[in-house]
Design brief:
heterotetramer, A: alpha/beta, 4 helices, globular, C: alpha+beta, 5-stranded antiparallel β-sheet, binds adenosine-5'-diphosphate
Amino acid sequence: MEISITPYKHSDLVTAKGRVDSYTAPQLSESFNGITDAGRYKIAFDMSGLDFLSSAGLRVLINTQKTCKRYNRGELVLVNIPENIYAALDLAGFIPLFKIFDDVLTAVGSL
Amino acid sequence: MEISITPYKHSDLVTAKGRVDSYTAPQLSESFNGITDAGRYKIAFDMSGLDFLSSAGLRVLINTQKTCKRYNRGELVLVNIPENIYAALDLAGFIPLFKIFDDVLTAVGSL
Amino acid sequence: MTCLPPLEVSSSRPKPFSATQSFPGRYASLAKIGDFVRDIAQNSGFQDFAIYSIEMAVDEACSNIIEHAYEGEDKGQIRCSCLVESGVLTITLEDTGHPFNFSQAPIPNLSDNLDDREAHGLGLYFIRRWMDEVYFETSDEGNTLIMIKRKVNG
Amino acid sequence: MTCLPPLEVSSSRPKPFSATQSFPGRYASLAKIGDFVRDIAQNSGFQDFAIYSIEMAVDEACSNIIEHAYEGEDKGQIRCSCLVESGVLTITLEDTGHPFNFSQAPIPNLSDNLDDREAHGLGLYFIRRWMDEVYFETSDEGNTLIMIKRKVNG
Ligand SMILES: Nc1ncnc2c1ncn2[C@@H]1O[C@H](COP(=O)(O)OP(=O)(O)O)[C@@H](O)[C@H]1O
Ligand SMILES: Nc1ncnc2c1ncn2[C@@H]1O[C@H](COP(=O)(O)OP(=O)(O)O)[C@@H](O)[C@H]1O
């Protein structure tokens, strides 16, 4: 898995490529925590490059969303979700828990 | 000339296509004024679709920048400037007066 | 001399195929186990989403073996066998870790209220929902999970 | 019978070409005047940025005719003549509006301090900087602006 973070004025864009499983999820978690630990709670997660996201990745998303939304500080929004991963999010009942965008510009612009 | 406006949380994106001359510049001016009259002063102007921009267009840009920057309220930033139009902005000494971006995401993310 | 027609090759009923491989019980193995089952599912003509479901179920099961059955990395092996026969993929995962009562695992909370949601407990849910049949056995030698996925239109 | 070589076609010295067209003195004419001169500059082999400069100079000059010489739309015609000869484009713009002392127009303020900048006064500056030669004459019949642009490498 490869992760990149682009900071914008009001939000951060996290882009991950490859496979998120129990082996790589801690890396993803650290990236999100680095942002929230810095007091920034508006995060767009570009998932277009992800091949695979296991429940370990889902855990990272839900924990990050909880951190971001606490005290109404911000939120994690999801962008460009690949079809198979969308099916997993859907089965896990994640769709109502995240705003979902088709393009990064609209996502970053919303935060 | 065709103009579209996309409002984001902290800024507005104005996209214009075609020819800005003394005939069409008033339309562009109205678009910018509509935004600033609504109390929004952070504007990204995507120029990628512009074929031509006369000094009437330059006037609109400088007037909008003045309105946006008054009392430090915001700013107009320019995105994707076509080469010929860049040469005109350069000759007119506009380059130091505007932040210039190569892509819309970075521009909107900066505002 | 008579000319026999070529041996008939039927795509719906190819010869049974099986493959088995053992992997060290650590998280770094997950991608390799994923490659192993994905290749077999692909070569057996499963559709894209079915392949993804299979990889997901196997990944979840193997993560559980490492985390819960072995309670940590490098405590034992994960043996993965795949059998493809008549459009049915049977995956058997064996470990030598702690016994487990699979059928009593709780159904996860899928509330759309963020505060009510637990981060854990989704793995077995994916396995049960995305596989067609799931069997779990614990014996003295360890645990065996059998997951069956049938090809649609296959 | 001898075979003559084909007639030589030289791209650097084609036959002189000229075209003239009159346009109503209104802002809606600007795009059409732009098309007219751009086509000629393109067909004469000017490079992309030279073509843009020519269109810009003509647009600025015609806007000034409407705004300043005629002081409004539909007060008179703008006559545009183009002559291309030996890689030199000569554009002549004629109007019947108020006389004007071209040479005394001030140089615009190009300060990089936004507050010091005037929105007006850039048109003549573009014409002077982007054209190779500029001549302006006022007579009883009206004003004539002549702008000359030379092809580079060609
Ligand atoms: N192979 C296993 N061995 C022992 N316990 C298991 C095994 N698989 C699952 N469990 C138990 O079932 C629970 C639910 O598992 P699962 O749905 O995969 O979610 P998670 O692993 O995120 O808790 C686990 O928390 C664990 O207590
Ligand atoms: N054709 C013209 N006839 C009369 N006055 C002109 C003409 N062209 C330019 N001027 C005068 O010169 C000034 C500078 O012109 P210009 O540089 O084109 O800027 P602008 O038209 O934006 O003021 C004009 O404001 C006007 O007073």
